[in-house]
Each structure stands twice: as C-alpha cells, then as structure tokens.
Amino acid sequence: MLVVEDEPNIRELVCLHLGLEGYACASAADGALALKRAEAEQFDLLVLDVMLPGLDGVSLCRAVRRGTLNRDVPILMLTARAEESDKVIGLESGADDYLTKPFGVRELVARARALLRRPEPMPAPPPALDEEGDVAGPPVHIHGFEIDFARRRVRLDRRDIELTDQEFRLLHLLATHAGIVFSREALLTRIWRGDTYVTVRSVDTLVKRLRRRIEADPAHPRFLLTVWGVGYKFADV
Ligand code: CA
Q: pTM to 2 decimals?
C-alpha cells in the first residue's frame, strides 16, 4: 500500500498499524512524489491525505485514476475536516472512502480491510495433522470407508471417492467421532475456522453435497445422519 501524508506522525502511525496487520507499506510526504511512485508501481491500496503540499490529495487521486497501473486501486482519503469529506465525495475525485481526522487506528484498519475486500487468510491445515491438531494416524476404517487423512484420500468399499477439501474434513471429523452428534455451530467452527462469511446454512449445504458423494440414496442416508433439532452425526459402529 502507499500512504501519502505530509504530517510525519500521522504517516508513521498509519504505516505502523497497517504494517501490524501484515500489509507492506510505502509512504510519501507530498503529492508529486506519491504520483511518481503510483506511476511506477502497482499498489493494493492508496491512503491519501487531502491537504498535501504541492499536488493536493484530490488532484492526486484524479491523476492516479487517469493513469494505468493504479487506475482501479481502492483509495482511502484522509480529511482534516468534515467539510473536506464533502469535497472529496462531491468532486467525484475517484476516492472509494474517506476518514475524518482525528480517526482511530481500528477504524482505519477496518476501512482498509473493507476496501481490500480480502477475507482473512485462512491458515491451511498442515497435511500431517488431523482435525484435533494431532499427528495424523493410520487410515480410519469404518462402515466400509477407508479415510486417510495424511493422504487426503477416501475409499468406500475399495473404490476411490473424490471429495473437495471441505467435504473431506467434514467426513473425517464425523467419521472419527462416529455416533457423536455435532451441532451446526460446532461444525461451522471446525470446518470453516475463522471464515466469517458462512452461516449454519452452509453446513446443511455441505452435508447435502457430501451425501451425494458417499450415500447410495442421499435422501435416505446410511452414514451421514441428521439428528433433528441438534445437528449431524456419523453412523455409530
Ligand atoms: Ca496534510
């Protein structure tokens, strides 16, 4: 990201907190310098102060939009007064959002994240660890299934079954706890982890998909059972 702000303490504060969020920050203290950087390098986000020496933030914003490398980059404007924000929006400078000074760093980070529209990176589960965080043991055998977590492989009656990663993790979790009922909320937490863009309905959808892959008659499942009013379980041994 590129942070353009002539006041050193605000510039450093913004860079510090975006940096703490894991974003790499370049900074510039005036508009002309910032425009040079924006013409030479592609950024994921620009944070522009409106009042800058030389080229002001609104003109800089327009110039960036007319350029090539960063014409579609999200732009967050920093304004000193509420009237300035009217100017930013009213002049259709091309900014996507604005923050009025003084602003809180949490607000700044939230706006930046929203503009990036990037979901939180989900930690990929290490291949050799199972859902409990233990080192994956030997393949699990149950009801004709052979579920090999380390190899992400499922066989039913010796035939390979192709599953997506989510389908696999749902099957592995339930089958290694056969007979234990999991609520939708519990499954949501375990399968989707920190992803906040899913609801309990996503669990039902995933169960339906998995049933189509593993059940001979998905409408009358033998393995992946519904426990009405509670959730789901894998058929007990
Ligand atoms: Ca300023």
A: 0.49
Asked whether 97 and 111 are in contact (CB, 8 A), the reply is: yes
For residue 142, report the distance from its CA to the centre of ligand 1, in Å. 66
Distance 192 CA to ligand 1 centre (A): 42
Cα separation, 136 vs 118, in Å, equals 31
pLDDT digits (tens, 9 = 90+) for 117-163: 744 444 444 445 665 665 567 888 999 999 998 888 999 999 999 99
Q: How far does the centroid of ligand 1 lie from the alpha carbon of residue 51, in Å? A: 4
Return the half-sphere exposure (C-beta side, CA atoms, 13 A cut-off) of residue 56: 10
Q: Which residues contact 108 (CB under 8 A, 6 or more apart)?
A: 14, 17, 18, 99
Nearest to 235 by CA among 183, 164, 177, 169: 177
In 3-state terms, what secondary structure has residue 27? strand
Nearest to 44 by CA among 115, 128, 122: 115
Model pLDDT, residue 192: 83
